[in-house]
Design goal:
The structure holds 2 protein chains of 2 kinds. By secondary structure, chain A is α+β, with helices and mostly antiparallel strands. Chain A contains 27 helices and 49 strands. In chain A, strands 9, 10, 11, 12, 13, 14 and 28 form a 7-stranded mixed β-sheet that branches. A 6-stranded mixed β-sheet of chain A has the order 40-41-42-39-33-43, with helices on both faces. Chain B is an alpha+beta fold. Chain B has a domain of 74 residues: Folate-binding superfamily (Folate-binding fold), CATH 3.30.2270.10. Classes of the chains: A alpha+beta, B alpha+beta.
Amino acid sequence: MSTRLPTGGVLVDRNKPVRFSFNGKKMTGLEGDTLASALLAGNVRVVGRSFKYHRHRGIVGCGPEDPNGLMTLGTGNRLTPNQQATTTRLFEGLSARSQNHWPSLEFDLGGVVDKVSSLTPAGFYYKTFIQPRRAWKHVYEPLIRQAAGLGRPPRDRDPDLYEHFHAHVDLLVIGGGISGLIAASIAGRAGLRVLLLEQFWELGGRTPVDVEMLGDEAPRDWIAERVEELNALENVHLRCRTCAVGVYDHGYVLANERVGEGTGDEGELRNRLWRIRARKIILASGAIERPLCFVNNDVPGVMLASAVRDYVTNFGVSPGDRTVVVTNNDDAYRTVNCLVRAGLDVPMVVDARPVPGPVAAEAKELGVNVVSNRAIANVEGTKGITGVSVCSQAGEGTVLERLDCEVVAVSGGWSPAVHLWSHCSGRLRWDDTRAMFRPDRTRPPLASDGEEQMVVVGSANGMLQLDKVIADAAEGTVTAVRALGGDADPGFLPEVAVQSESPASPVWLMPNGMDLRTRAKAWIDFQNDVKVSDIELAVREGFESSEHVKRYTTLGMATDQGKTSNINGLAILARSLNTPIEQTGTTTFRPPYTAVPMGAIAGKARGSLFKPTRRTPMDAWHDANGAYWEPVGDWRRPYCYLQGEESVDEAVRRECLSVRRSAGIIDASTLGKILVSGPDAGRFLDMMYTNMMSTLRPGRCRYGLMCNDNGFLMDDGVVARLSDESFLCHTTTGGADHIHGWMEEWLQTEWWDWQVHVVNITEQFAQIGIAGPHARKLLSSLGGMNLGAEDLPFMCWIDGQLAGHDVRVFRISFSGELSFEVAVRGSEGLELWRKIIEAGQNFDAGVYGTEALHILRAEVGFIMIGDETDGTVTPQDLGLTWALSRKKEDFLGKRAQERSYLTSPDRWRLVGLLRVEGNTPLAHGAYAVSSENSEFGHTRMIGRVTSSYYSPILDRPIAMALVENGPEMQGTILEFVEKDGRVRAEIVDPVFYHPSAAARN
Amino acid sequence: MLKLTCPYCGIEADETELHGGGEAHLERAAGGAGDSELEQYLFIRSNPRGVHFERWHHIHGCGKWFHAARCTETMEVFGTYSAQTLRPPENTLSEIKRRRPNWVNA
């Protein structure tokens, strides 16, 4: 059993107990514990179930490399799934639950998969669930969905805060181990702006656990001095609990700081996402120990050797009384020393090397039994280790010896944590003597000026002995600091004797000739249950690329991103392919290095801050008068105004009829308004619009179309000429910003010698539309200007005063009715709106919203950008050839519209539709199908509904559609496919309703 | 995330402040242009691995369009310059030649 030792544990405070719960069971740890160390101290060996086979899983590592200890933390709206027990600091009241089991961690029905694991190798899903086809939708997919996924997402809204923080520094140091501290000290003394990030809450990294003396000091003292010195420097900032998770181009780095734990009041700051721009980056991210591949190496109790000594030294936790140490290198002997000193038993050190080197002799002096050229043949036990059997490493697994133990501490050598180096194209090379992929410092990530952006130092650079780590950190930092123009002085470095280690021998399979059947029990990826046999199967089935094998077997695709499993998996792959591992290469490392909560990514951008809503000056009036809102672009506009108990449909119908029978008032302020002025304004608009705008007389208006240079319609609106040199261009509500940018782009990049000035004045003016037979009487009653047919003819505008406000009145119509649009200063919009509403009471006028606007325009056959157009529709398709100038040699889209494809008579073109039977509108987007199939025997689609409404004035549904050869097929009846079957509609002219000429004038 | 210096306002801008506009120095096919000229203008792009001249819009900044010479492989930036020119300026070309001696302007 695992337990707390009577003494030791430099990070925990034995006087401060911390209460927490695991799967509902009340437990006690110590301040300074991680959740993992507290669980081990409380003899919790099984912390979860694996993803596929639901095998028992225990803690393996002591940091973010641990694949197994995934927990759901908190409850209710503070619930957070998939948190690592090894990186979660224990706090009072912490509630943790293990994952991926049902009904309980101890008794998991999913474990049945493990019993039939020989039937479910890699690729099992692809092969099994493909037949019969029909079963996928109704049987397989629902079942797999039930089984898939780790943890469960919270159901409630997260009450806590997350924020982004921007930082610009000269030098970013990633990693607060001894290399990082040296780097920060050298750069800090040189006066550079330095930020150091450390993922744990303690600085110093592995050194305090692994090193006895640093020069003439204890490592912790030396580290404390460095930290004190750095904290005194104003130009240096140290951040613990902050993990650099992604490195991007030109020195951009994302880091996730864990600020709160969900312990405080709701609304506390949980995570801070650092967005850092650094002139240079020192990567001192350290190295990660690799496990070894032997039979049943996933039984709880099999731990990384480094993690075992971390738990003993840092937390005073014994993972078990008897620990068998299995290794291929010298480093694991540190664990032997540590365990012996703590009074724990090491029955045997199983060293796979034929000649273990001097450390073995030292261990023997401590009374430890060291055997060489040996391997683990099998680990016994399911929920915990009961014993191991030992065999010859060179052999096939014949058991030579069996012994009892509770823990197996494994070390397969160290892999530099190269993830952040590789995120932004830093290259790796295979170092045969060290048996590791190391950063290739001759091919680093590059800065915008082509110089090296990142310098990798210390064990992240493959240095594993203290003297080499220190020298490498100093050398790399001095180079970086000098490149930044700083004066580097590494004079404070401790003197460390030259250290020697016997080389590690690459051991990828244990024993080397492992029996084929048992390879299905030798785990590589503990979280995703990838075994040696799975990789070999993938190779037999023809997979060769590491990227393909990864995806086929899911190796390294779990939440730990293969921190412990990648290199072993690649080595097994290389071995199976019979190629050197450097040829196999690694898979691509991608951000994030450790998981980042979605909340941290969103930061403050949620709720009303996610996307600002644009509001017109009359917005408050709408809100107080029953507005039923809809988003239009970034704006919100009333879809209709609800009165009393009426439904939305009833309101829309009432508003439509009010316009047709008396008058309607609409807030048109959102329409884009772009002022184009200058000597070349007319010439410029002739290029922008398909129509001729330069011939428009001041005081007149013209409806214009804008196309892109592919010939497709992109926007429309009324252009008013204000003077010889200025035009006011109206755009669609959603198009204003885009069209303004579009005009700027052409002026800046194509016709930069033309004298034109463009300004977006959309928000400077409120605009009110008044439409209907009583519109003129209504407006005139406000007093101040003559609006008679002679004073203001159709498609003209005049300036004047209405009810004491300076206004510009346009006589334009989007409904076919007599109609005016009144523009007024934005600040006076609400006041004039109220006066018009009040005046409207005498004329039976009501307000109307966007839906009535759409219906009214469709009744008279006007198109709507975004309904009738989708970026593939030309003006010709919509029968708008009258708006295309024949006189102009050029306008945007003219040449492209001459392409054979766009001039084909078979293009889908605009028609009106009337249902033959039924009284509900056709479905938006419904397709018309031909009675004849295509040459391939497929149903042939020949048209599509683009707008569909119920017309109150006609008291019947109407629709517009794009139909192949449509305008030539008037009277033809088409079949449209809807959800509940086919419906029939007749092709008619798209103008459904003609207001009387008298009413219009 | 790239950073580019806007030649108008002088700000070293994050990519989030900018909007890419594709290849620079394209010749617009005006009304009356031939088919191949139109095809070239609308659809044919060099898409090189290496030195690329491209358009950028300082959309969340000064609002100006400018050009950048950039290596699409290493993300190195050789220079940024005015959009109101038909070809890259000499100092940008010589910087490219300095760092990519074998580069030939297509």
